[in-house]
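Build the 3D complex.
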Amino acid sequence: MVESTINATQAVVTLDVPIQGIVWGSIITVNMWAKSIGTGVVFLAAFLWFRHSKEDMPNLRWAMPIIAFLALNVFLLFTLIDLHQPYRMVNIFLHPHWTSSITVGAWLASIFLGLITLLLLIGVGEKFPGVPFKGCKLTKFGRNNSALYEKLMPFVLFLAIPVTTYTAIIMAQSSARELWQAPTEVMQMMWAALMAGSAALALVSGSWSREARKDLALILSIATFFSFAMYMSEYFFSFKSSEAEAVLAFVHSGGAYNIVFWIGLTLGFIIPFFIAVGNMKSDNQTLLKFAAILALVGLFIVKDVWLKIPQLLPLS
Amino acid sequence: MKLGFLVDLNLCMGCKGCEIACKVENEVPLSTWRLRVKYIDLGTFPDTRRSFTPLRCNHCESAPCERICPVSALHYLENGIVNIDSERCIGCAGCMMACPYGAIYMDPETNTADKCTYCAHRIESGMMPACVVACPVEANIFGDLEDDHSNISLYIMEHKGAVQVRKPEKHTSPTHFYVGGGNQTLNPLAHQRLEGFNLFNDITHLEHVGDKNHGILDRFLAPFVGHPELDNTSLIESATDAESHEQEGGH
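Done.
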């Protein structure tokens, strides 16, 4: 835990109640991490379709909504299980409080998941007519409304932006934790989405054209570089806030999470950056997939540390 | 009407009468506190002194907990009290992350957020908060901040520059004031929590949020298969961690 004292006073707590430790733990990290994948693949798919013909990424039309659907369901499941009263989640829809970014985010994410489900029905319905069983009305609906995919995609892309960034606003509203109050958190969420999205798609890019994969590696390298740069600037530069600086000074000095943080940065940012940069020339699919897995693992570790360290501060 | 609270730390003698009165009045479960009195020792022997700081919800005019609550479980009453509706709370702990004063806890019996309400139920009946009534030295002063002739307004006017709030830099506009405090008592970063320095126990941090026997699966199953009723006795029985800690050399 993070505490300090002034030499002149030598103030020491001699009687107090036990105080709260970490309130938002790894469940919330899974929540953020899965959401980054769910929205990131949408950004990447839109970019790749803008830059390349659909034939260059033959499976993207159905693979993207499948990945996004799974990731968003993991995100929502972990949101739910983190609640101490999960069945009351419905209160967010029955008694919404619109100043809360948790409320706004829950509504946006639910609409977003609805749209992704439509894309999934169309994409899977076209590619796998017999799934989940022959004559399934849902996939039949998808097949019969194929043109809807292109019409929905701009809305999905537009909605992916606030769904990605609203967590930064939740963190900004968590005013007890100074470390999360940085305006850079919004961009950090965007870079995390691009990183996770490119990494997730790299795992299914085996049948893609070399040029498309090159673009994927480019985005992965840019996202890891800028995300790393932002973490470093937040980690080393002054926050002008005594609480955030106390947290960082504690971690800098080898306190809890110091080693884990650097392992996460090395695994998830530094190594994938160099592999991705190299991959733009060599097109080594195995290495790219390795970099993608490292990026996903490292992103989770670093997000987990960044979530937990400000909670080491005693608030009163 | 805007109700406010002032604690004169020059008068407080750390008897914890307010803490106990609050526990009894609001049936606050073990391992949680709406109001607590923190002892801080200052200086080095023989030039030392002990300060006592009662800490409770600040009922901020711009309350971050009210803002972040997704279901309006935390809401303002007309008299300025930040109240909580535990029937509506979903237990997301957003308020615990937003409150800069660490004044909100997860009730281990209801698994919903809870905090000091300035005894809103007593105020409604024309009574004072339990902690105010219990204080033997009248260090707790409670009243209407908008009434220039209320005790609290007169006290604030009398002490002017000596009146402080906790963490003013957070722009929460607390309606809870202190007289006689200092950085070393009101700033949690200005004092240390050292292992082995606590008077009656050595448990510095809670290991769980809410009921520690209420795991993820229990949260979903409890409405159907039931959940063992948690009361203070079962909490005492489950406090084996503390006992083993004592055996390892803790207080």
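Chain B touches chain A through 69 residues (CB under 8 Å).
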